[in-house]
Amino acid sequence: MNFLNEVAQHYPAAVSLAAGRPYEEFFDVAALHRHLDTFRRHLADDLGQGPEQVHRTLLQYGRTKGIIHHLVARNLAVDEELTVAPEALVVTVGCQEAMFLVLRALRAGPDDVVLAVAPTYVGLTGAARLLDLPVRPVATGPSGVDAGDLRVQVRRARAEGLRPRACYLMPDFANPSGTSIDVAGRRALLDLAAEEDVLLIEDNPYGLFPAGDARRLPTLKALDTARRVVYLGSFAKTVLPGARVGYVVADQRVAHPDGTVGLLADQLAKIKSMVTVNTSPIAQAVVGGALLEHGCSLVAATARERAAYTRNLHHLVDGLGRRFPAGSPVRWTVPTGGFFVVVTVPFPVDDALLHRSAREYGVLWTPMAHFYDDGAPVHALRLSVSAVTPAEIDVGLDRLAALVTDETARRQAAVTVG
Amino acid sequence: MNFLNEVAQHYPAAVSLAAGRPYEEFFDVAALHRHLDTFRRHLADDLGQGPEQVHRTLLQYGRTKGIIHHLVARNLAVDEELTVAPEALVVTVGCQEAMFLVLRALRAGPDDVVLAVAPTYVGLTGAARLLDLPVRPVATGPSGVDAGDLRVQVRRARAEGLRPRACYLMPDFANPSGTSIDVAGRRALLDLAAEEDVLLIEDNPYGLFPAGDARRLPTLKALDTARRVVYLGSFAKTVLPGARVGYVVADQRVAHPDGTVGLLADQLAKIKSMVTVNTSPIAQAVVGGALLEHGCSLVAATARERAAYTRNLHHLVDGLGRRFPAGSPVRWTVPTGGFFVVVTVPFPVDDALLHRSAREYGVLWTPMAHFYDDGAPVHALRLSVSAVTPAEIDVGLDRLAALVTDETARRQAAVTVG
Fold first, then answer.
1. Class for domain B29-293, per CATH?
2. Which residues lie below 8 Å from residue A207, measured CB to CB, with a gap of 6+?
3. CB pairs A-B closer than 8 Å
C-alpha cells in the first residue's frame, strides 16, 4: 500500500476512490480524553484496582495478551453472539499484527503453506512474504469462495509434500472483492475445513457495515463448533484507526515447544513478546473506554458511519449505471455492504495507467492486479466509498468514465492501426 | 521474559530484584491528558494544521515512519549532540519492533547472520529466532566488547560462507551485563566496523541513567562519520513504557528491491507496513507532548528517576559488600549507571534455583543463563534496581544472602558426602 500512498501524495488534487480508510467526519479528539477517563474509572470501580495499580495498568509494561480482553469478549458476545473465553484473545497492534502473529505461528517449517482466497488483501500476502511463507490462491466463487477449488488446492499442496495449514478469507464484504459468503457457504466451509484438517483464518473488518436493509450474517467463528476458525478483529473501522488496536481469537489447543498443551493464543503471545512486547495500554484504554460507553456494542455506535457508507455505496453503484449504460463493456459488482466495488473494464489495468489516471484525469483507484500474486494482467480496478462524499464520487466517476472512454478508444485505434 | 513474568505471578509476595521495568512512583495519569493536548496544539500552532488535519493526524491511519520524527530528531540533537535527518527515523511500537524490523531487513537470505555481544538482551535473540536469523556471540571484554573477538567472529563467519551483517550491542550500561564501552573503545569499534564492512546496531535504552557524577559518553552514532551505526532508541525508560514508542535511526543508503537507492529507514518502513502498519498516533502524541513540554530534552525531565536509580544502585552495591565481605567467593559488577548488577556465585544458577529462591526465600532475580544461547551452566545472576525501594533491596539482599549461604553449604555437603 506504500505505493498507493505515494501516488496519492504526488497528486493531492486527485479525487481518491482508492483510499480504504474509514469515514472521519464523526471523529472527535475530545472523545479521546473521555474514553481514557471512562476506562480509568472502569479499572478502579469495576475491577477494583487501587490508584497505584491503575497507574501501573495504564502506564507500565503490561500483560502481553492485553488489558481489554474482557471487554472485547463482551463485545463479541453482544454484537456477534460469539462466546469467547477472554484468555483465548490476544489484543494486537491493529489487525495487521494479529495476521502476522498467526502466520508466524503457522509457519513451523519450510513445508508449511497457507491458502488465501484470491484476490487477497495485500496485508496478508505482505506479512506472509516477510515470513517466507508461501500463499497459494483459492478461486473466488459466486458466493465468496470456490469450496471445490479450496479442496483441490489443499490436496494438491499435500501431494507436493507441503503442509497446508489454513485458508485466509474475509466472509463479509471482502477487501478487495466486496463479495460475501452466504450462510450455507459458511457451513460448507467449516465442514470442508474439518474434513481436510485445515484452519480457517476469518478476517472481519467490515462485518458491521451491511448496506441499507441487508442482514448481517453469523461469522464463521460463531458457527464454529470444532475450533477450526482463528478469528481476526479490528477496531480500526469501528472505533478509530489511530488507536491501532485489533485482536485475534485463537482458542485452538496446540502443543507448545516445551511439550505442554495450551492455547494457540498463548503461543501467539510468546511471538508477540518478541515483535511489540505488548499493545500500548493507552491505545487499548481509548478503545476500551469507547466500548464501555456503548455497553460494549459497536452496532449502535456505528449507525452514523453505516448510514454514510450505505449512502455512498448506493451513490457509486447508481453513478456507475448512469455512466456505463446497458451495452457498455464495463461491468461492476454490487456488494451488499462494506467499502469496495470492483469494476471490470475492456483493457488491462496496471500502475502505469493509475499514474496516468492521477495525472491526466485527476482520479485515483486501486489496480486489482495488486491483489493477485501471479503478475498476470487484470482487467479490473477497485473503487472505495469509505473516505469520500457523494459529490466527490460524482466527480471521481466522471473522471473515471472519461479515462475508460479514452483508453478504450486508444486501444481500438491501436488495434485498427496494427 | 514470559517465563520470568510467570514466576513473578506465582510468588507475588517475593521481593523482585528481577524486574527491569522503570521506576513508577513519578508516573501520572493526568499527564497523559496534558501531553495529548500539548501535541494537539503543536500540530495546530507550530505545524499549521487546520482542525480537520489535526483530527486526521491524531485519529486516522498515518505516516508509516511516524508523526513525531521531527521531535525525536530534536531530542537527539539536544540530548546526544546527534544530527539526524527526520526522514532517516522510523518511529516504532517500542524499541522491540525497531529491533525486529532491522533484523528482518538484514536477513536478505539464508546466509545472513548477525553478531551480538554476549550476554545478550533476550529481545534481540528472540526476534532473531522468529526470523530464522542466526545470532553468533561475541565475547564481552573489560570495556564492554572484546573487539579482537568481534574481528575473529566476523572472519570466521565469512570463512564459513556466511554474511555477517551487523553486530548488536548496548554501549551504555548494557542489559544484562551493566558494562559500558569507553570512548577509545567506541572509536575502535567504528574503525573495525568500517574495516570489516559490518554495521553496528547500537541499542541505547539506559544512556540517560549514569549513576551520581558519572559522565555520559557520546553514543556510537554521534561518533559515526561513515553511517556504520543503526541506532535504536526507546522512550520506555524515559517517558512511559505504556506508550510503547521507540524508534530507529537508519540513515544508510541501500539498494531497494526495485533497483533504486534509498534510505534503510524507507526499507524498514516497508517492512513495518506489513507488521503493524504504523505506530499509534495517540501513543506517539503522548510521547511527543512529553518531549515538547521539556524542550525536547529528557536529561532534565528524568532527573528524579536518575536520582532514584543512583540511590538504589549505590544501596545495592553497598549492601552486597556488607553481606559478602572480603574472602567470600561471591563477586559482583559495579556499573557506572543503568539498572543492572551481575552477581557471580560459586554454583550454577538455573531456573530450578530461581523457583526455589522464590518459593523458599521470597526473592526473585534473573539467571544469567537466559542471556546466553548455548545452554552451558552459568554461575551468575542479574539483579535489577529499577523497580524497588531501598527497603526492598535490603530485604531482597538478606534473602539472597541466605540462599547463597545455604546453596554453597548444600553443594559442599554433597561434595563431602560424594
1. alpha beta
2. A80, A172, A173, A216, A219
3. 165
CB–CB contact B275 A100 (8 Å)? yes
Q: Which CATH superfamily is domain A2-20+302-413 in?
A: Aspartate Aminotransferase, domain 1 (3.90.1150.10)
Enumerate the CATH 3.90.1150.10 domain ranges in chain B, comma separated: 2-20+303-417
Q: Which of A134, A71, A57 is nearest to A373 (CA)?
A: A134
Residue of A nearest to B99 (CA): A275
Order of all β-strands in the sheet with A245-249: A89-93, A245-249, A229-234, A199-203, A163-169, A112-117, A135-138
What residues pair up with A380 in beta bridges, in sequence order?
A344
Could you say which of A22, A64, A242 has the minimum Cβ distance to residue B281?
A242
Any CB–CB contact under 8 A between B281 and chain A? yes
Using the predicted structure, report yes or no on whether residue B173 has a pLDDT greater than 90.
yes
Are A113 and A163 in contact by the 8 Å Cβ rule? The answer is: yes
Provide long-range contacts, Cβ within 8 A and 24+ apart, for A147-152: A147/A185, A147/A188, A147/A189, A147/A192, A150/A115, A150/A189, A150/A192, A150/A196, A151/A192, A151/A196
Predicted confidence (pLDDT) per residue in B218-227, tens digit: 999 999 999 9
Note which residues in 83-122 of chain B have CB less than 8 A from chain A. Answer: 93-94, 96-97, 100, 104
- pLDDT band of B187, cuts 50, 70, 90: very high
Nearest residue, CB atoms, B58 vs list A29, A62, A94: A29
Is beta strand A135-138 parallel, antiparallel or unpaired with respect to A261-263? unpaired
pLDDT tens digits along A305-355? 999 999 999 999 999 999 999 999 999 999 999 999 999 999 999 999 999
Closest CA to A51 of B22, B28, B244: B28
What 3-state DSSP class applies to B268?
A: helix
Mean confidence (pLDDT) of chain A: 95
Contacts of A281 in chain B (CB under 8 A): 242
**pLDDT at residue B201 greater than cutoff 80:** yes
Nearest CA to CA, how far is B214 from chain A (Å)? 27
CB contact residues (below 8 A), chain B span 19-58, against chain A: 21-22, 24, 27-29, 32-33, 36, 40, 54-56, 58
Please state the rounded mean pLDDT for residues A123-152: 94
Question: Using 50, 70 and 90 to split pLDDT, how confident is the model at B258?
Answer: confident
CB contact under 8 Å between A29 and B21, yes or no, is: no
Tell me the CATH number for domain B2-20+303-417: 3.90.1150.10
Whole-number percent of chain A with pLDDT over 90: 90
User: What are B227's three cell numbers?
Assistant: 553511517
B370 — contact with chain A (CB < 8 Å)?
A: no
Contacts of B123 in chain A (CB under 8 A): 274, 277
Question: Which residues of B are less than 8 Å from A280 in CB distance?
Answer: 93, 242-245, 280, 282-283
Query: Sign of the CA dihedral A15, A18, A23, A27?
Result: negative
CATH 3.40.640.10 maps onto chain A at 29-293
Please name the amino acid found at residue B167: C
Using a CB-CB cut-off of 8 Å, the residues of chain B touching A2 are: 64, 269-270, 273
Bond preceding residue B119 cis, omega within 30 of 0: yes
Task: Give the confidence band of B3 by pLDDT, cuts at 50, 70, 90.
Answer: confident
